[in-house]
Design a protein that fits this description.
This protein is of the alpha+beta class and 318 residues long. The chain contains four helices and 18 strands. The protein has two domains: 145 residues, no CATH class; 130 residues, Immunoglobulin-like (Sandwich). The longest helix is centred in the first third of the chain and has 16 residues.
């Protein structure tokens, strides 16, 4: 046995002495930056859009937001007077709302990671009228969104005329899309029931229209729309066309808790965009996940331009 041990030790010593590190140069394909659009048409809300530049994964971060940048905030359906970033931070921290502070800091940090296009011409058209959106920074706390273009025109309830967006930047690149508001689908009933541990599950029922192909997004929050999200699902009516449809949650709620139930009636493009966005989000940084490509309805760019139509109800568990 000893006569085999010495050669084995020599081999191990030689391996240990070798430099096993090797630099490998990987030639990445050329990435073509694109205009990226995120804009939602919502009845009762102004026209808003986020227009940014898509960049390669390895490109450096954007410059931090200047403390003198004017920020516009909407929250709880109200417009807060525009303030500079430093003034707004001082005001928010003085209020001491922990959730509000966390979202505000998240907004500010996000602006350092995205490449805003602030010199584009952004026009949203509807019913023969063109509305040119003005560049600025807008924080929407109700929907947890950032925008850098807005027009005060309030979106009407109109199920027959399309909305369209046209974006032209200083490089003569053009991005465009169109959408239409869908009629909201009413929630027929919301019920809750308890398990043996006295926690409740929320279940909502609605009726699908058999005459059309429909897509939905179903969300259940706790006491507010900022956090406490218990359910978020996108579905189509392929398996329940024309039926009464139940959607619900796990047993997440106790006696006295509040539940906010929202049913969105969405189009196919938003359904596909959101599902592929979720796939890409969970695949990012996961070496075992399949790469995911986000589907878009923006011609000449990427992103989503769609209308939000929904019904919402609140239930208190008793």
């Amino acid at each position: 046995m000893i006569k085999y041990l010495l050669p084995l030790l020599c081999i191990i010593a030689l391996i240990a002495a070798c430099d096993l590190e090797r630099d490998i140069d990987i030639k990445l394909p050329e990435y073509e930056n694109e205009i990226t659009v995120e804009s939602y048409i919502e009845p009762g809300q102004p026209l808003r859009a986020l227009i940014v530049e898509s960049v390669s994964y390895t490109e450096s971060s954007n410059a931090p937001l200047d403390e003198n940048t004017i920020i516009n905030i909407t929250g709880e359906g109200q417009q807060i007077p525009a303030l500079s970033l430093s003034q707004l931070r001082e005001f928010i921290y003085m209020e001491g709302d922990t959730t509000f502070i966390q979202i505000f800091d998240s907004f500010v940090n996000s602006l350092g990671l995205i490449y805003l296009i602030n010199d584009a011409t952004v026009t949203i058209s509807h019913a023969g009228q063109d509305y040119t959106l003005e560049p600025a920074i807008y924080f929407d706390f109700d929907n947890i969104k950032i925008y850098n273009y807005q027009h005060p025109f309030i979106v009407p309830i109109d199920y027959t005329n399309d909305f369209s967006i046209q974006v032209t930047d200083n490089q003569d690149r053009n991005a465009s899309a169109s959408t239409r508001i869908l009629p909201p689908v009413p929630i027929d009933s919301i019920v809750y029931f308890f398990n043996n541990e006295d926690t409740a599950s929320i279940q909502a029922w609605f009726t699908d229209d058999a005459a059309t192909e429909n897509y939905y997004r179903f969300m259940v929050h706790g006491s507010n729309l900022i956090d406490d999200l218990y359910q978020d699902a996108t579905i189509n009516d392929r398996f329940f066309n024309g039926d009464d449809v139940p959607l619900g949650t796990d047993f997440n709620f106790g006696i006295g808790d509040t539940s906010i139930v929202t049913l969105f009636h969405i189009d196919e493009t938003y359904h596909d965009f959101y599902e592929t966005y979720q796939e890409a989000f969970f695949a990012n940084g996961n070496p075992f996940a399949q790469p995911a490509q986000i589907l878009t309805n923006i011609e000449g760019g990427r992103g989503i331009f769609t209308a939000l139509s929904y019904v919402r109800d609140t239930v208190i568990i008793e």
